[in-house]
Design goal:
Elements (H helix, E strand, L loop, with lengths): L4 E3 L2 E4 L7 E4 L6 E9 L5 E8 L4 E7 L6 E7 L4 E11 L5 E10 L6 E8 L10 E5 L7 E5 L2 E5 L5 E2 L2 E2 L1 E5 L6 E7 L10 E7 L8 E7 L4 E6 L7 E5 L6 E8 L3 E7 L6
Antiparallel strand pairs: 1-4, 2-3, 4-9, 5-8, 5-10, 6-7, 6-9, 11-16, 12-13, 14-15, 17-22, 18-19, 19-20, 20-21, 22-23
């Protein structure tokens, strides 16, 4: 609540630890501005304390204007109440010096509330054998972290689609039949087709053959297939599915592939 100015936001008493006030009543494009923030080099992650009893969305952190350079972003999950608080994390571009920080809410109505935010050093590396890397032409360097059974993945790029992908990919090598399932807690609403999920990929090349079950920010769940290197991607889409939801990818003997989604991780 130590903002310099706000647009389409209001403060309210906060029941989280330490009390004080939070920023709430956010719609898409609502923002808070903090003038003359002195960034130190080496801060590569951002944490935010958020709550949502509505639809959730994302927080984007821009430098020197509401559409200025993107410093980082975090998802705002549906936490179960407007005062049910959760700390979420994302990755930030390395910057230094004095900047005006714009915190911009993205999503539909009833996105969520913000209690505090904090920029920090890079998170701990992924546990072996997991590794991560950007694939393709990305505009903002991505990253990934793991804690208590949860992966936090941040990346940029035009899309995971068509003949070449641009994304952040967290992976380990597999051989033979396998099954991979994950619960997608949230997808920042940077675009309707912003997506996260599980993928089997032939290589880290942008046009590599792959199969994926992905959950998008606004367009439901999709089973995507690129069956030829640098070929077109096709998909089967089921609308009306939103985070949190489960996704699952199976390779059976003989290279038969199946994709699934679930609301509870039990009924697919």
């Amino acid at each position: 609540s130590s903002f310099s100015s706000v647009s389409n936001l209001r403060t309210e008493p906060c029941s989280d630890a330490l009390g004080g006030y939070d920023l709430g009543y956010a719609g898409s494009g609502s923002r808070a501005v903090y003038h003359n923030v002195n960034f130190s080099a080496g801060l590569r992650s951002v944490n935010a304390r958020v709550a949502s009893g509505g639809s959730g969305g994302s927080l984007q952190f821009h430098l020197d204007g509401p559409t200025g350079p993107l410093l980082g972003a975090v998802a705002v999950p549906v936490t179960g109440g407007w005062q049910t608080w959760q700390t979420v994390s994302g990755f930030a571009a390395d910057t230094a010096g004095l900047h005006d920080l714009y915190v911009v809410f993205q999503g539909s109505g009833g996105i969520g509330n913000l209690n505090w935010l904090q920029f920090a050093p890079p998170p701990q590396p992924l546990p072996s054998p997991w590794t991560n890397a950007d694939i393709g032409l990305v505009g903002w360097v991505g990253g990934a972290a793991y804690s208590n059974g949860t992966f936090s993945v941040s990346g940029s790029g035009v899309d995971i689609w068509n003949t070449a992908d641009a994304c952040q990919f967290v992976s380990q090598p597999v051989a033979g039949p396998f099954e991979l399932r994950a619960r997608v807690v949230g997808v920042p609403g940077t675009a309707a087709w912003a997506k996260a999920g599980v993928m089997l990929r032939e290589s880290a090349l942008p046009g590599a053959r792959n199969l994926a079950v992905v959950l998008s920010a606004s367009n439901g769940v999709a089973f995507q297939v690129r069956s030829a290197t640098s070929g077109a991607t096709t998909s089967t889409v089921v609308g009306g599915i939103a985070a949190p939801a489960w996704v699952r990818l199976v390779r059976a003997p003989g290279n038969y592939f199946s994709g699934y989604y679930s609301s509870d991780g039990v009924a697919w």
